[in-house]
Amino acid sequence: MPGPTPPLHSLRPLRRRHFNRLFAAVYASAILSLLYHHILKLLHSTTLASFFVSFLLFISDAVLAYMWSTTQAFRMNPVHRQVFPENLQKVLDRKDFPAIDIFICTADPYKEPPIDVVNTALSVMAYDYPTEKLSVYVSDDGGSELTMFAFMEAAKFGKQWLPFCRENNITDRCPDAFFTSNYAITANTMEIKAMYESMKMKVETALERGKVNEEYICSEEEHQLLTQFRTKDFTRQNHPSIIQVLLNSKQDVDSTGNAMPNLIYVSREKSKSAPHHFKAGALNALLRVSASMTNSSIVLTLDCDMYSNDPITAQRVLCYLPNRSNRPNCGYVQFPQRYHGLNNADIYACEHKRLFLANPIGMDGLNGPSYVGTGCFFRRRVFFGTPSSYIEPEIPELCPDHIVDKPINGREVLSLAHHVAGCNYENQTNWGSKMGFRYGSLVEDYYTGYRLQCEGWQSIFCNPSRPAFLGDVPISLSDVLNQNKRWSIGLLEVGFSKYSPSTFGIRAMGVLMAQSYAHYAFWAIWSFPIIVYALLPSLALLQGIPIFPKVYEPSFFLYAFLFLGAYGQDCVDFISTQGTFQRWWSDQRMWLIRANSSSAFGMIEYIMKSLGMPTHGFNVTSKVMDDELSKRYDQGIFEFGVPSPMFVTLATTSILNLIAFLGGFVLILKERSFGSFFIQMFIAGFGIMNSLPFYEGMVLRRDKGRMPTKTTLTSTLLVGLLYGIASFVLNI
Ligand SMILES: O=c1ccn([C@@H]2O[C@H](COP(=O)(O)OP(=O)(O)O[C@H]3O[C@H](CO)[C@@H](O)[C@H](O)[C@H]3O)[C@@H](O)[C@H]2O)c(=O)[nH]1
Ligand SMILES: [Mn+2]
């Protein structure tokens, strides 16, 4: 008699939810009292200036209060999940594992070095999974022969790498990660290492020259593959589709005779006259191309900078998908974005602990986490309508349950693949609106996950202690801020669309889920209160005008409680999800920095975009490592270097806070009015504490990454200008 089936997963609500709920009630009352206090002040203001000040403070605190309310959704029911992949084969035979299509996106060989993309691909090709059931599709939006060449080489190297990993039971299946780790040196490893180095050298030399050297091309066939990129008028924005089966699991075997996974290079057709919708467009093209070739029921999306760090990840997913979870409509399993190479303090807070760890745990206790663009396994079916109403694609071959029984290298399949990768294919179809990844936002991941959840799909957050995927982080401040600006714009696009979480979302998914999504959608509006708090108290201090309650007044304690309560809870939350105090400090500092720069610029760019002015689009983050820059990053030094308008606003507030603090100090000594200016002094002082890297960058450093002198001068002038305006406005 068969025993009870062993568990595949478990779920446990976290105890802190009780405290969170209680604290939310107390904190909410404090917020309401503060807002009441503001309204009284507004009604009783005697001068235009005091009305203006009270008004700004009221609006700022109202925005902060709103953002606080959105964060509560994450705190109401955080849960902890565990999977037991060791039990999987007791329930499901290995030969019955479902097939998986893996999508890897790359867009620019000069920002995303092809050798790194290859590493990502090899790390998933080497999954501990029946190889013939894996198909890796590489989308190259850069339309580059350099990437194609890298993959031609990867296909050959993979035939050695896969059996090597299997036979030696390697856990680091990303070659680069393996060869930089502490591996056992044997004759076999040295041989593989030499092959890897030779591949790397060829790929990098080709990249340096911008062209593949003739001596690297071994056969007429290879030559033909590359000539496709060398036709007249071929540019990355304008070229026919290129689809190449580099490995075919039905024919290609590794050095030990085992089947290889499918490996397919895809560069969809591009034309300047047809919108290509950036990454979402690329993923939709892959959905269709893969449907025509393998049509696996499970799809994994990966960014080229996120390699697999754990070979059994796909097996973990099978503990939930397609229908082994307790969520009947589970459409995707999201793994967190985690990173390698962060410096100790994580100075740019690129770990995004809240976004990628803490908040998903909270959403998982509701209807499931949002989609974060990479490390996510979908059921293919979610891209075709809601759980209850299926939307039929235009051609039957694209149906999620269609079975492909033709050879993927055959004429018929290939011609269909080229057809569906065409740049005009989507005209008059549901792609991007009701089907596939959704268009209309620069954060296609967030928007797609949101729309799927509105349709009734649920999701699961899977966070094993060994990170399933590891990615690169930007290591210069301007890269970080540009990435953040793109996110801010994309999120506002959703926030103010007809599908806004605060209107459409509440109806479709309930208040708590909608609040979680609204939290992101309106991320950028944090910049308003933070800029007000960065400027106004300091400017008023310089004019000798007190704008906050005196120490010991009852409302002073309200301010103290609100500040300490929010900061305290934030700090405890951060540290209790495997964080350190130092990283928490960087995290709160980056929150202020972003609000003072990228979010504000993002808001402006969003407005310009809505007015129809041209903007940047999807600016791909550079993953190239400059040695000097990397060194400074590892030492925890901020990288400014290039002039950027975003640095101007940051430098301005840091200079202003410093001057105001010094000026305030003199004022207090002269007038003996410590109590009236305490809060203003505290805020300026807090600004100074957070600006230390900026003072260093402006004054103390001489290296290439210092703050450009022009930026420092412009900012100083701006401080003078602000001072002038304030002495006029605050005294009317
Ligand atoms: O036209 C484009 C632009 C980008 N990409 C790819 O999109 C991915 C993400 O781009 P990246 O520059 O690394 O952006 P990040 O800001 O680091 O990415 C985060 O934010 C993006 C949305 O803005 C999400 O798509 C990502 O999954 C998420 O990690 C990369 O693999 C790119 O190759 C394309 O395929 N086509
Ligand atoms: Mn990235």
From TrEMBL:
Listed A to Z, the keywords are: Cell wall biogenesis/degradation, Glycosyltransferase, Membrane, Transferase, Transmembrane, Transmembrane helix
Kindly list the positions annotated as binding Mn(2+). 279, 303
GO cellular component labels: endomembrane system; membrane
Q: Does the keyword Transferase apply?
A: yes
Catalytic residues identified in the record: 141, 445
Q: How does it sit in the membrane?
A: Multi-pass membrane protein
GO molecular function ontology, one term from the record: cellulose synthase (UDP-forming) activity
Where primarily located? membrane
Spell out the InterPro entries in the cross-references.
Cellulose_synth (IPR005150), Nucleotide-diphossugar_trans (IPR029044)
Q: Name one GO biological process term.
A: cell wall organization
Q: Where are the transmembrane segments?
A: 21-40, 46-68, 517-536, 556-575, 647-668, 674-692, 713-730
**Positions that bind UDP-alpha-D-glucose:** 111-112, 141
- List the Gene3D superfamilies hit by this protein, alphabetically: Spore Coat Polysaccharide Biosynthesis Protein SpsA, Chain A
Which protein, by its recorded name, is this?
Answer: Cellulose synthase-like protein G3
